[in-house]
Design brief:
By secondary structure, the chain is mostly helical. About 55% of the residues lie in helices and about 5% in strands. It contains five helices and two strands.
Length: about 170
């Protein structure tokens, strides 16, 4: 399967709309920021996503830029300071809460398109094109052979573990 099977921008835009990054039809969230385990429309497994703190960093950057413009107007004296302060405080609270689900959805869509974390290899895809965590043994689960130098490294780890077990005994 080629990269065209997971286009970058449509996946991000679907996530931005809080929809499944693959089909764009299923809901992405069960509750506020709680991603559904599986898309109800296409069956895409969504529980493996790892958005972590990136959405919050993006939101802080966006809101920070908005507040800087407001503070600039405050320093210039273009508006009544009390009104401007009330607007800035309200924006600092409301805007992050409003845009965080969309930003998190865009990050989940980005992860899906780039085959990161839990979106590495789907059923029917060529495993060699996916991103596999060889330390966990994902390559063995799907029958993928490691290159010879990687197999030697794996054998070295097995020998080291066996040595540690005999030493501890």
């Amino acid at each position: 399967m080629t990269d065209a099977a997971r286009p970058l921008w449509p996946s991000i835009l679907n996530g931005l709309a809080c929809r499944c990054p693959r089909c764009g039809k299923g809901r992405l969230y069960r509750r506020y920021l709680r991603v559904v385990p599986q898309c109800p429309e296409c069956g895409l497994e969504l529980s493996g996503h790892r958005a972590d703190d990136l959405p919050a960093y993006i939101v802080v950057t966006i809101v920070g830029h908005i507040l800087v413009v407001g503070l600039f107007h405050f320093s210039v004296g273009a508006w009544n300071p009390a009104v401007l302060l009330a607007l800035l405080v309200a924006a600092a609270i409301i805007v992050p809460v409003a845009i965080l689900p969309s930003v998190k959805g865009a990050v989940v869509g980005l992860q899906y398109a780039l085959r990161l974390h839990g979106f590495a290899v789907e059923e029917g895809e060529d495993a060699a094109e996916g991103v596999l965590d060889r330390r966990r043994g994902d390559h063995e689960d799907i029958g993928l052979q490691l290159p010879a130098e990687r197999q030697d490294t794996r054998e070295s780890y097995k020998l080291a573990e066996a040595f540690e077990e005999t030493r501890d005994a």
